[in-house]
Amino acid sequence: MAHPLEFAKRAIRQRINEIFNDYERGERPALRRADALFPTDSIAWRVNGDIVTMMIGGVSGLLLQMLHPAVLAGVWDHSDFRADMHGRLRRTAKFIAVTTYDHASAGRAAIERVRSIHDRLGGVLPDGTAYRVSDPALLAWVHVTEITSFLDAWVRYGDPAMSEADQDAYIAEMARIGLALGADPVPRDRAGGQALIQSMRAGLKADARTKEVAALVMGQKIDGLAETAASKIIMRAGADLLPDWARRMHGLPAAPPAVIAGAHAMARTLSWTYDGSPNRQVWPDEITAWPQG
């Protein structure tokens, strides 16, 4: 008979699986495979598999991305963000999971699907400037803000002692995804990522549309008291992770110590919850259905 704590861990994992996967459409977590786009001992496997830090980094990255007028326009013009912001966040998490852990063929297919969508989308900014979602420079902004935010969250809440060499290696590994999506330029190390962000600051802005989308991100609600409390911590910690200048542009306050402590506690708890779970195993090809547990 399983220990009561094991039942609790399974229940938490099941609930998280339901939050990040549309079970009504048959979605399940991505199974980890030995032939993924990244090797099993890669830095990407280490960083991208932590639930809490990826959620915090994802929120921070999204808030940073939308300061670019063309990125914001793409969300505004081509997504049902008001009714389905949770779905948008979930699809981003699914893309990262598949391209990091699933069969390489599944990862490449996911990239091609995203590229095909990007190639069809474009529009006109409020000032009359035309934009294309597939613009390499625009994709470079999305890529660099996303991966540096994931990494910042991991260093703050997952591994504060992470070496600079490993941080550079993560940026270099994730460049593979940016290049495959059509981004250019794509940084290969921490310094390159920060330089790219700084080079694009002059074109960033925060207006009424930015604030509306940011408010929807920060106001995400999930059914359940525990889930709602956790979501609030994730959102506040994500905003706090922003560079000071970006947080000021959004008009968001720094998180109080209680939020930071809560995020640390959540990260430790879920690390314990997932230790030894099916989510962390590397599965052979003959296993095609998501295992229980």
List the helices and strands and how they pair.
Blueprint: H1 4-20, H2 43-48, H3 51-65, H4 69-78, H5 81-101, H6 104-120, E1 122-124, E2 130-132, H7 136-157, H8 164-181, H9 190-199, H10 208-218, H11 225-240, H12 244-250, H13 257-274
Antiparallel strand pairs: 1-2
Helix pairs in contact: 3-7, 3-11, 5-6, 7-8, 7-9, 11-13
Describe this structure in words.
- This protein has helices at 4-20, 43-48, 51-65, 69-78, 81-101, 104-120, 136-157, 164-181, 190-199, 208-218, 225-240, 244-250, 257-274; strands spanning 122-124, 130-132.
- With 293 residues, the protein is mostly helical.
- A two-stranded antiparallel ribbon has the order 1-2.
- A hairpin with a 5-residue loop joins β1 (122-124) and β2.
- α5 (81-101) runs antiparallel to α6 (104-120).
- It is globular, with a radius of gyration of 19 Å.
Could you give the distance between the termini? Answer: 14 Å
Estimated structural class: mainly alpha
Tell me, what's the shape?
Answer: globular
Average pLDDT score: 93
**Which range does the strand content fall in?**
under 5%
As a percent range, the share of helical residues equals 55-70%
Poorly predicted runs of 5 or more residues = none
